[in-house]
Amino acid sequence: MTDWVFSQAEWPQTALDPAGPHAASVHWLHMGMLILMVAVVAITMLALVVAWFVRLERSPVWIIWTGGLAFPLVVLVGLIAVNSDVTRAVSALAGPDELVIEVTGKQFWWDVRYPAEGGQEAIRTANEIHIPTGRPVRFRLLSDDVIHSFWVPALGGKRDMIPGRENELVLVADRPGRFRGQCAEFCGQQHARMALEVVAHAPAAFEEWRDEQTRPRLTPDHPQLRAGRQAFSDLGCAACHEIRGVAEGGRLGPDLSNYGERDRMGAGIWPNTIGNTAGWIVDVQRMKPGAEMPSYTDIDGPTLRAVAAYLQSLR
Amino acid sequence: MRVSAAALRILPLLLMLSACQPEERADPRLRIIDGDAGHGRELIAAYGCGACHEIGAMRSARGRVGPPLTGFETRRYIAGGLPNTPGNVVAFLRDPPRFNPDTAMPDMGLGEPEARDIATYLYEGVK
Fold first, then answer.
1. What is residue B10's predicted lDDT score, i.e. its pLDDT?
2. Which residue from A minimizes the CA distance to B61?
3. Which residues of A touch chain B, with CB atoms under 8 Å apart?
4. B52: closest CA among A126, A299, A224?
5. Which residue of A lies nearest to B104 if distances are taken between CA atoms?
6. Rounded Cα gap, residues A129 and A122, in angstroms
């Protein structure tokens, strides 16, 4: 409908090209209100112009009754009704076959867990959330440190993540694609660099992705990658980062099991390349000052290249 | 011959305009045939060179991990001891560890045309 103006392909974080029923209801409510407001302003301006040129002996009282009382009353009551209807519609998206995903906001990234369900193992990932299309996804939203807000405009509205309580948001993607999201509640120094990507797949492709995640990460028989894996242990990366089948138990930082597959790094900000990865390890505090990870300043060149290559190989 | 007052007033302006010529002409030895500096700039952003290098004209490139690349066309050597020629720069970009086994700069997997465009931007675009 609005493809010609703000298509999601060109603007990955648009609310004006909805990719799901939640976003669509909000979008039509917004467009309707926008048109209505423009009309009200236009009529008011017109009335001012008329008042300027037309001098009447006595102003007709009916204008005041209709324009000043009846019209706003009808419009506002109508808006309340439509608004309630939209609210009801977006909260009724849940279904029996819904997928539960637990997202925990952190300074400054997103910890993503898929609880075990229907014979499927639990998996953990970060910053890039994969979902199936056409199936309601119940996001259980938590926070570890401060208030964050989960917001993927192309799929729906915002929901705060508050330490000590659990909020829920049900979203449905009705087409495959990549939808960018952003933390929408000021959470500290790197609030602006706390983005995420939601990747919607056709159901079969999603199941394939999910199966893929449960495999332990075997290191290919390549000297540089083996050296990188060794350095990952030696440098103590595993204290914070998990890699399935290689280093488990580190929960302070993002899970890196499928790091090499992710489109972006640094919580949805930089293109995920070996260059950005190497630069991040050595000087994360310059790329993202205030992130929890320290800059590792005493890694020699070949080791740095090996770690970066190893991380890129995780897929 | 009389010069009109208007021409006299315009003369200093013309002189000022002629002073706006580039101060130093690009070194012809640093020309890369068919190199596309604009595309080079896009590639620099896409590969994330700015995570490690400071590149004056790019607001997003403020890295301090490796050497700054501002004024690159005036450098005599790259990578410590490699003469700064287009051929060397392109070859280095395609496989840095080949020229310096101790380098921290990873092999980005750049293709020949990509490396040429990036080198063109480094020579022409970084001011």
1. 62
2. A287
3. 270-271, 273-276, 278-280, 282-283, 286-287, 299-302, 304-305, 308-309
4. A299
5. A301
6. 14
Please tell me the pTM assigned to this model: 0.85
8 A C-beta contact, residue A103 and residue A161:
yes
Q: Confirm if A101 and A129 have CB atoms less than 8 A apart.
A: yes
At A224, the amino acid letter reads Q
Would you call B48 and A287 a contact, using CB atoms and an 8 Å cutoff? no
Chain A contact present for B102, CB below 8 A: yes
C-alpha A167, offset from chain centre = 15
Of B47, B65, B106, the CB nearest to A305: B106
**Which H or E run contains A160?**
strand A159-161
User: Could you list the pLDDT tens digit for every one of the 315 residues in chain A?
Assistant: 445 567 777 888 888 889 999 999 999 999 999 999 999 999 989 989 988 888 877 778 888 888 889 989 998 999 999 999 998 888 888 888 899 999 999 999 999 999 998 888 999 999 999 999 999 999 999 999 999 999 999 999 999 999 999 999 999 999 999 999 999 999 999 999 999 999 999 999 999 999 999 888 888 889 999 999 999 999 999 999 999 989 888 899 999 999 999 999 999 999 999 999 999 999 999 999 999 999 999 999 999 999 999 999 998
Q: Which amino acid belongs to residue A306?
A: A
Q: What pLDDT band is residue B22 in, cutting at 50, 70 and 90?
A: very low
Report how far apart, in Å, the C-alpha atoms of A295 and of each of A88, A230, A290, B86, B96 are.
Answer: 48, 19, 11, 33, 23
Instruction: End-to-end CA distance of chain B: give it in Å, rounded.
Output: 45
Within 8 A of B61 by CB-CB distance, chain A residues are none
How buried is residue A136: exposed, middle or buried, by Cβ count under 10 Å (0-12/13-18/19+)? buried
Interface of B with A in 17-76 (CB under 8 A): 45-49, 51-52, 62-65
Beta bridge partners of A167: A141
In Å, how far are A4, A9, A13, A20, A35 from A16, measured between CA atoms?
11, 12, 9, 11, 15
Alpha-helical regions (H) of chain A: 3-6, 21-53, 61-63, 71-91, 203-213, 223-234, 274-287, 301-312
